[in-house]
Amino acid sequence: MFLFVDDEExxxxxxxxxxxxxxxxxDMIFTxxxxxxxxxxxxxxxxxxxxxxxxxxxxxxxxxxxxxxxNGIEFFEVLHTIFPDTIRILLTGNTDSGFAIRAINEGKVHxxxxxxxxxxxxxxxxESAYREYFRVKAQREEAYAAKRAKAVFLDTMTHEIRTPxxxxxxxxxxxxxxxxxxxxxxxxxxxxxxxxxxxKLFNNVLDYSRFDSGQVETPDVAFRIGDVMRHLxxxxxxxxxxxGVAFTCTVDxxxxxxxxxxxxxxxxxxxxxxENAVKFTDSGAVAISxxxxxHAGPRFCRILFAIEDSGCGIPDEKLLDVFQPFTQVDDxxxxxxEGAGLGLSLVQKxxxxxxxxxxxxxxxxxxxxxxxxxxxxxxxxxxxxxxxGAPSGSAVPAAGKxxxxxxxxxxxxxxxxxxxxxxxxxxxxxxxxxxxxxxxxNDYDLVLLDLPLPDMxxxxxxxxxxxxxxxxxxxxxxxxxxxxxxxxxxxxxxRERGIDAVVQKPLDDAVLLDMxxxxxxxx
Length: 523
Hints:
Blueprint: E1 2-5, H1 9-20, E2 28-31, H2 34-47, E3 60-64, H3 72-82, E4 87-92, H4 98-105, E5 111-114, H5 118-175, H6 182-212, E6 221-223, H7 225-242, E7 245-251, E8 259-261, H8 263-279, E9 284-293, E10 300-309, H9 343-354, E11 360-364, E12 367-378, E13 401-405, H10 409-421, E14 425-429, H11 432-441, E15 446-451, H12 458-467, E16 479-483, H13 487-495, E17 501-504, H14 509-521
Parallel strand pairs: 1-2, 1-3, 3-4, 4-5, 7-9, 13-14, 13-15, 15-16, 16-17
Antiparallel strand pairs: 6-8, 8-12, 9-10, 10-12, 11-12
Helix pairs in contact: 1-5, 2-3, 5-6, 5-10, 6-9, 7-8, 8-9
């Protein structure tokens, strides 16, 4: 389909004459009103059933430059955001081509054609543009297919790897509770540490693959910088203490209490950098600080984060290498330590998504200092209560009946045993329909759902619990999803179906039990 826009009817008449004199069966629309042309484009986009990727679109649009309402270049700028594949031909009677060249360089215009050349050049231009349009569309569809295939592969591998890993770690956690000797406990602890390292390595590789292919959604949220730093301290201070290294996290008192931005990415960036600092520091200290920078503008703030360590440092000639993915520098800074060399390359990708400043690394006389800055909006509204899920170490009350709906017998047995050890009464079901039948005839205080189940998605089971008239008396029950997919993505997908929280596999008993305690004791 082709659209021609020019406020001079004589020009449109000439175009129609030229095109209809040739043997082309093109579907064409002509208009002298630029706003009407924009309306055509928007209606065509809205008519698509699956968004920009699947909507119908114009193959070629030819537009005059000077028009009332909205000029040709402004029209093409809007069009570029809606249908980037549409070939855009700028038509003008102005022989000064400077402004058009600028538009072409910015990618908003593909062709530039003088009105005086319509008779001789329009048909060849249209035919050439038509071929280019289908070439570009074919390339984009091929890229979409490859992206979808990669997403399916990553989701499959995530499930297939996390599932047996969840069983291994679960059984090890249960084995610790069976009255082992000191030597046996040492073996079990070593196996658990190895499982955690494997989980961390898998998560890093998966995160890198997702970020590399653009398969990541990171909405902005309101949060406290102090909470991020406390979480960092809780996660790494024990590891630092075991090495005899002091670990501190400080926040400038001028930093706003609440900000709005990409909290999850900030947490990952600081964790990767701080963990790296602890890993390569054998004595001394690691210090993380957040300092307010000036001149961020009204209602915005820019914060400088610094990670300082007294470790072995990085040789100057290797500074660039440590930012390369899957690369380990063959010297004392890398080889003696475990890891796949993904941490800093992940940080670089995260910073790009955050739109933060570049990473600055400085070798000092005693260690390394890494600095980065990020801008946030100052949040003036009250924050909601912190989301459940972070392990607090407190005991779970020994009361309550739980319905566990899990697809794998080994995982169900492990989870049930862990809950029984903490005083819960547990019923288990092997699929969604069996779980719904149990729920209809028994009273429970909480439901644990696998995502997915053999006969239905866990989200669908949750939706039935929340909306089915036959389960109206149970619609208020807390529901926790158990997922092999990234927990953040599952939380976003599950919230609309009524799932209160998602715990990621392989399960950590402390996290799961703390989640249950939080949900069962909320008002």
